[in-house]
Amino acid sequence: MKNIPVVSISSLEDALAKTEEISEIFRSTGVLKLQGYSLNRLEQLMLVSKLGDIFSWNISTETVTNTPSPELVDLYVFMGGHSDDPHRGESIASDYVVDWHIEQVFYVDTFLAGFWNMYHIGYDDPKAGNTHFVDSSEIYDLLPAETKDFLEKAVVIWDKPIGPRQGFGPYYTKALDTNRVNGKITIRLEADGGCILPVSLHKFDGEDPTSEQSAYFDATLNNLKQELSTNKQIRYVQQWQEGDLIIVDLFRMYHAVTGGFKYGERQFHGTFTRPSGYTNNLYDSIEKL
Predict the structure, then answer these.
(1) pLDDT in tens, 36-88
(2) What does 85-129 look like in DSSP terms, one character per residue?
(3) In the CATH hierarchy, which top-level class contains the domain 6-276?
């Protein structure tokens, strides 16, 4: 397993003074951890806005003033942690309660970064509630040349539930995309089985796929899931402590969460960033690709 890079901070001012260091690690590894000082929600938003100036995010010093209002903090900093459901069933630390996935593949202006600031942990098992990360660009680099060429020509189709609307879709996405942070090719395929209909190959090199091409795609997707689940050499593991703040490139990092915690035992303050001037447009037609 890989170690998540750590940046030690002693205050908000110290974190702000280290934004260039934080930015460089974010570009190179896609995930890092701030430790040493627990940022409150207002301070978290201030840090996000400074980094937003560097990466042209929707949250920047243009949208967040030096003294953000409580309403603005509430808009951009949410409560998370996957322990907010009192009816969640029992889980064990060796299982995933949130399986491997990559965020918002279906949105034209997708999530670019996540800030997860853990403020409460109510369990003792060090393997419980861990977040695992794998860089999709690294998985891509490990693929055979034949598979890389195949995915470059692949457009897939999904049906994806959104909120209460079951079966909303379909959506059309490219199997590969380029990360605007570092210019590397990323795999943009969901792997958690969360779609109502299984993802399938829609077009190959602009044409309807043959049965052999569809079967090759299905095998490639299964291999991706297997790689995420079993290849520990490319995996980062975040073993949470209260006060840890993870910054993750959500465009390129697959992630999953282990079980072993109950209602209210895992709580963080979260922030998602998107491109400056983003829309909520979806890839609901192939012409948008």
Answers:
(1) 999 999 999 999 999 999 999 999 999 998 788 999 999 999 999 888 888 77
(2) -TTPPP--TTSEEEEEE-TTTTBSS---EEEEEEEEE----TTTT
(3) alpha beta
